[in-house]
Amino acid sequence: MIEINNLTCSYDKKTILKDINLSINSHISILGANGSGKSTLAKTICKLTNFSGEILINSKNTKEITAIEMAKNISYIPSKLEIYDAFISVEEFVLQGRFPYKKGFFDYSDDDKSITKQTLELLKLTHLKNNALSSLSSGEQQLTLIAQALTQQSKIIIFDEPTANLDPSNSKVIAQRIKSLKDYHQIILITHDLNLASFIQSDVVFIKDKSASFYEDNFFTNGNLAKLYGVEFEALAVKYD
Amino acid sequence: MIRFFVWLLLLAVLIISPFLGAVSLHVADILNPQNINNAIFFDIRLPRVLFAFFAGVILSLSGLLFQTLFRNALMTPYTLGISSGAVLGAGIAIKLGLGTLFFGIASISLFGFFGAVLTVFLLIYLAQFLKSSQQESLLLLGIALSLFYTSALMIVFYLGDTMQNDMLIRFTMGSLSIIGWQNPIILGIISLSLILVVYMYRYELQLLSISDTGASLKGVNTKQVTLKLLIISSLGIGTLVSISGPIGFVGLIVPHMVSKLYPSTVDKRILKTAIFGGFFLVFCDTIARTLQTQSELPIGIITALIGGPFFIYLIITKASR
Fold it and tell me: What is the least distance, in Å, from the CA of A161 to any CA of chain B?
């Protein structure tokens, strides 16, 4: 559960988000135009950018908790993998999700390794486990990122535009995977993929003019969307279910 | 198979290295305490080989560390201007005629050490103004600093007399010629501590080698870890350069050679890089000592002759990927 109070965010002297107050108790999709501040909102929740105001995760102020505690509560999945190390394998990468649980300067435990193994099986990545992460396709990389977040075993998972770099069939795989995680995790989905947002069936936060509005229902109507995005809508989308 | 031969070659050189040089030594003479060759072996050759080995460990491990922390193949203490800082410090000491000792430490070494360490703190300070995605800018900062130092050094040259300039040129070219056991022991302690600390942070480094934000999202206090490792390796580099002068390219090429031999994540390459670096510098130093010239060649010339072409190869292959 996330509580956001009086959040203001600036970047290069430009205000991106102003006086945001939000209480996120269940699954949510954050929507908005390019540059509206969707990703900025997600990054402030994860303490990746500077902000004023306060953010509470499970009633703890994020400014006061350690990086390790943060990682146990929340994981963040970027839309695209940035990777300098060309050699790391899928298995090694997924195991890194266990870092917040690793003891001191020791190696990863057998527990950590078996959780990794189970996660790879769950996401049907076992046959790729020894492949270099950098050699995978975008769809496989996105699945590997999800696997890494799952081994992290955090309650909250943030997806930052998970389908942005994917073709329709890979988008479908990812969409169904995200939906299946709803039972055990609180999903925060940032996306331009309206079809995905409606498929996930969550509340919606729409960001426009630096502030956020909350929608419990009545968001996905052509009239409402046309008003918010300023373009006409017509159904032409992948069938996710 | 290639791995085996590379290690065998380096090991063989390490073993025969102390016997080679201006005077060839025979085992019988070495074991005879009355013979002058006994002193040459135990007081000059052996300490020098160990000094070269530990210098190689510090240079290559620092190179690996800088490349990993900044996720850039060209980052080394040398390319970031840290060695140039040491040279300028030493140059100033020579120009000021501070031949005397401070608490038993040569003033050239002391000034060289502070030149290197101050440069690191200057870089860390300047890096705050860069965005985390601008690693290239840090490299440019280092290059700008190097150029600035070189110009400042030119002024020192211009003002210096012939004897001072001769000393300075010798320092600039880098040299592993030392006598006695004090320096190898100091470097040995630094090398072992550096290996230990880097090994303790192996999994943090593995995460940092993917991305900085990724590492912090997994619970790594990236700023603190980066700062800690940078300061420790810079103290090592500062100490080394203050004794030996700058030895370029080792920190750049050894980590890349080891990653070609062992394509694996950084945590598995720490020890291999350190040992390979030690062997590699002994190898280069053996060449420098045995080439029959008027006097032995400065080590910096050998590493640069091998490293320069390798550097170009690295840039070309990276660009074409």
Answer: 16
Best of B218, B226, B269 to mutate (most A CBs within 10 Å, chain A): B218
- Tell me if B259 and A87 make a contact (CB, 8 A cut-off): yes
- Residue A196: give the domain boundaries: 2-229
- The CA–CA distances, whole Å, from B74 to B80, B194, B248, B250, B279 equal 9, 21, 12, 12, 22
Q: 3-class SS at A131?
A: coil
**Residue that wins the pLDDT comparison between A187 and B176:** A187
Which residue has better confidence, B166 or A130? Answer: A130
How are beta strands A186-190 and A156-160 bridged, if at all? Answer: parallel
> What is the per-residue pLDDT across B270-298, written as a single tens digit (0 to 9) for each?
999 999 999 999 999 988 888 866 677 88
Task: Tell me the three-class secondary structure of A144-160, residue by residue.
Answer: HHHHHHHHCCCCEEEEE
- Gap from A158 CA to chain B (nearest CA, Å): 11
Domain boundaries of chain B, sorted by first residue: 46-173+180-320
- pTM comes to 0.89
Measure the CA angle with vertex B30, ends B28 and B31; round to 5°.
Answer: 70
Q: For residue B229, which amino acid is it? A: L
Q: Which CATH topology does B46-173+180-320 take?
A: ABC transporter involved in vitamin B12 uptake, BtuC (1.10.3470)
ipTM of the complex, rounded to two decimals: 0.89
Interface test with chain B among A91, A96, A130, A159, by most B beta carbons within 10 Å: A96
pLDDT tens for each residue of B303-319: 888 877 877 776 677 54
In terms of Cβ atoms closer than 10 Å to its own Cβ (0-12, 13-18, 19+), residue A131 is middle
